[in-house]
Design a protein that fits this description.
single chain; four-stranded mixed β-sheet; 2 helices; binds zinc ion
Length: 214
Amino acid sequence: MKKLRLIFLLLLIMTILPLNIFALQNVSDAPVRNIGDVLGNVLHSNVRTYINGERIPSYNINHRSVVLISDLANYGFDVVFDEETRIATVTRNYAKEFTPIENIADNTERPGSVAFQYVYTDIIAIVNGVEVESFNIRGRLAIFFSSLGDFGTFRWNGETQQSMLTLNEARIVVTPTGIRYHFHFCHTIRENWRYVTREEARELGFTACLVCEP
Ligand SMILES: [Zn+2]
């Protein structure tokens, strides 16, 4: 019986000890942030942001433009929020028509002055299959405008204070060893690719990538 108790005790120690070490490491590594914690200031700015020439409302954090994820649905993107996993996913939808937001107010305050604060959110933003920095601006999920870089080319006009994103045309590509066809900007592509039409890709037996959804 004594032996049995000893074994039990040893087993107990073995199960508890590594867990404890792991837990301690986790605590020290993780940033101490709670939902609603203030992260910094949103500044008044004269910078205006555009996607394919259409203006999109933006904010300014650390002298970088920030857009609301929900607004992107009006500019050729699909935005899906999963309540359970708390993940917001942004993907390009080439079939979607632009319905740009109208009557966007220009800044009337002194540029660089504090407008309000932005706060931490536990919602994860996934853009083109990759997690990007996100924050809560007045109860809405926001990302840096530059996080949309996979989808097109940025142009900055310092004189007019305009930041413009021109979206890439959709091109279908396949790789030598892959089984999926992709949009050319898909981040899962690891090899050289070549352009094909969607029809060619299907005839060759490729199926649509689940990440870029071509
Ligand atoms: Zn893909």
